[in-house]
Amino acid sequence: MPTPRRAVSTQRQSMNDRCENLSAVAAPLADRKLPSLAAALHAATVRDRLVEHLPESELDGGAPGIELLKHTPGKRCVIAYDFATRHGRRRVIGKLYRRERGQAIFANMRKLWQAAQCATPRFHLPRPLAYVAEWGMVLQEAAPGIRADYLLHHGTFAQTVAATARNLAALHRLDLDLESRNTLALHLQKYCHPGLEHLMADLPEARRRLAALAAQLLSDGSLAAMKRCPVHGDLGLTQIFHAEDHVSFIDFDGLCRSHAALDLCNFIIVLKTHLGRASDRMIALFLEQYDRLRPLGEIEGVRQYQALIYLRRAMIAWRHRLDRDWRAQALACLTAAEHALDQRRSFSDRHPAKVSFHLFGERA
To answer: What are the tens digits of pLDDT across the range 338-363?
Structure first.
């Protein structure tokens, strides 16, 4: 796969998310909800932990390079550790969580990794390495390849989309014992944080529309009876790394058993958001590739999950309400959510690739 010029200069930072909260770089030690953060950024202390938890790493005695990639104050922090071994350089990603949340995430990742090793088709993800209990940190291999957002306007992006569809279908085919989220009420609580009431307060002209949408979704009990499978829960371009002929997914904080439509709708709306009207070809390619491994005729809940994802995007606009156009963005997402719930066609009407533009044709 030819490497785009931009990716050449950013491959190191594309190994995972760069620090999105730059204030964390200036004062990363002040996070009282992540009390082990200071130790996780101290080279000598980190080296001792790596030796203890990764004996196979064969560290050469030098201190590791440390790069703060992302810090969400009070919630999590992502750190890259680069160190030398007898066999060359190695890069490990440490994800620091508050309280014991990392333990459950690591347990799920191990289940996922083990299931993926014997799955056909193969599901690709970085190998989980260890859980550092005293820090609340998950250690995992760095994902190989180039992050998908760096490929968005490169000629190979269609290959990335096709590989993403295949990897997502492989994930949805796995049989895993995970926490189940089978109602829209659970999803609304998770994805529309801190709550639609905040959006209503700052968009009084749309209060009735928002209340009607929320009521419709909360009263919809149809999802509870629908078939569930392992889902990523938050698949976007920054969670996808393209290497050679496949992609790997990262960030499994939202991994659970739910409905495939959650991941499908989320990723398709990501494509629409980034590519606008140019997304039609990519959406068709994505659905066609997915359908080859897991029939789209089995997918249920498309209307509901489209509406949910657009409501989530309205809340994201609200959280960035210092931006001048946040109101217009939120109202556009609200309109798209209403449009999604008005759709009455299903995947089973005719071949799924041919109905994709009807199901996903609304514009946010």
So the answer is: 999 987 644 444 444 444 444 544 43
The string of pLDDT tens digits covering residues 269-292 is 999 999 998 999 999 999 999 999
A 10 A CB-CB count for 245 gives 9
- Cα separation, 304 vs 306, in Å, equals 6
Cα dihedral across residues 269, 274, 276, 280: positive or negative: negative
- Tokens of residue 104, six digits: 């459950």
142-170 burial, b for 16+ CB within 10 Å, e for fewer? bbbbbbbbbbeebebbebbbbbbbbbbbb
Strand partners, 257: 180, 230
Q: Give residue 50's pLDDT.
A: 86
Q: What does the pLDDT look like over 94-120, one tens digit per residue?
A: 999 998 899 999 999 999 999 999 999
d(CA 69, CA 195): 28
| CA dist., res. 149 & res. 273, Å (int) | 12
Q: Which residues contact 47 (CB under 8 A, 6 or more apart)?
A: 59, 63, 64, 83
What is the token pair recorded at 305?
Answer: 């999950």
Q: What is the rounded distance in angstroms from the CA atom of residue 67 to the CA atom of residue 251? A: 18
Tokens at 109, concatenated:
């990742």
